[in-house]
Amino acid sequence: MTTANAYPDDLEALKALLLERDARIGHLEDVVESHKAATATDKAEIEHLKLLIAKLRRMQFGRRSEKLDRQIEQLELRLEELEADEGAAPIEIPRTPRTVPEQVQRKPLPDHLPREIQIHWPESRETCTACGAPMKQLGEDVAEQLEYVPASFRVIRHVRPKLACSCCDHIAQAAAPSRPIERGMAGPGLLAHVLVAKFADHLPLYRQSVIYAREGVELDRSLLAKWVGHTAALLQPLVDWSGPTYLRTQGLS
């Protein structure tokens, strides 16, 4: 059916059809304006939450307060919800050509990150599927994607061979590597991770225990607490040495 044939021949019916179309267009325009207003409100709330979180973090500096911690956590959760909704909003594709805005220069991915190269060859890379002639590389398109590889546990097995002299009774063996916690199973990297997660990322030990259990490693909260205590004692000399200097630089002493 052509566009002309889609309209009725009767004048009154045509008027009714046009009025219905205009009403539908008006309704859609109202919906669009409503969405725009809601988006503007969300953006304003996002900026307000960011400022409020920054203010609370400044108040939190240098002292511990469970009330402040809860307030910051609740605000950050609300901020995440708003930003997630903003990211999930459908992208409007204009029906009429518009002036293309200047593209924002995307910040390049950090050079220090390791690169994993994946080469995607066509299904037939040796011969042409059209004529059967040999194919040769003309060039390549390269695009980088930021990916996250979840942290993983590993077991470091320390092996110390014993060597015996074939002429005398002398036996040689390397000394056992030092451990942060005597006879403890935790390596320095794991201890550092637990402390950073607890004190820098505000991740309680019981939550860490649940996360590690999902990876198949059972680490009880009480064990993690003992590790934290032992490591804090190890770090105390460093705190005693650097603490006063840090406080002076922050104007707190």
TrEMBL record:
<dbReference type="InterPro" id="IPR052344">
    <property type="entry name" value="Transposase-related"/>
</dbReference>
<dbReference type="Pfam" id="PF03050">
    <property type="entry name" value="DDE_Tnp_IS66"/>
</dbReference>
<dbReference type="Pfam" id="PF13005">
    <property type="entry name" value="zf-IS66"/>
</dbReference>
<dbReference type="InterPro" id="IPR024474">
    <property type="entry name" value="Znf_dom_IS66"/>
</dbReference>
<dbReference type="InterPro" id="IPR004291">
    <property type="entry name" value="Transposase_IS66_central"/>
</dbReference>
<keyword id="KW-0175">Coiled coil</keyword>
<feature type="domain" description="Transposase IS66 zinc-finger binding">
    <location>
        <begin position="126"/>
        <end position="169"/>
    </location>
</feature>
<feature type="domain" description="Transposase TnpC homeodomain">
    <location>
        <begin position="48"/>
        <end position="116"/>
    </location>
</feature>
<dbReference type="InterPro" id="IPR024463">
    <property type="entry name" value="Transposase_TnpC_homeodom"/>
</dbReference>
<protein>
    <submittedName>
        <fullName>Transposase IS66 family protein</fullName>
    </submittedName>
</protein>
<feature type="domain" description="Transposase IS66 central">
    <location>
        <begin position="183"/>
        <end position="240"/>
    </location>
</feature>
<feature type="coiled-coil region">
    <location>
        <begin position="58"/>
        <end position="85"/>
    </location>
</feature>
<dbReference type="Pfam" id="PF13007">
    <property type="entry name" value="LZ_Tnp_IS66"/>
</dbReference>
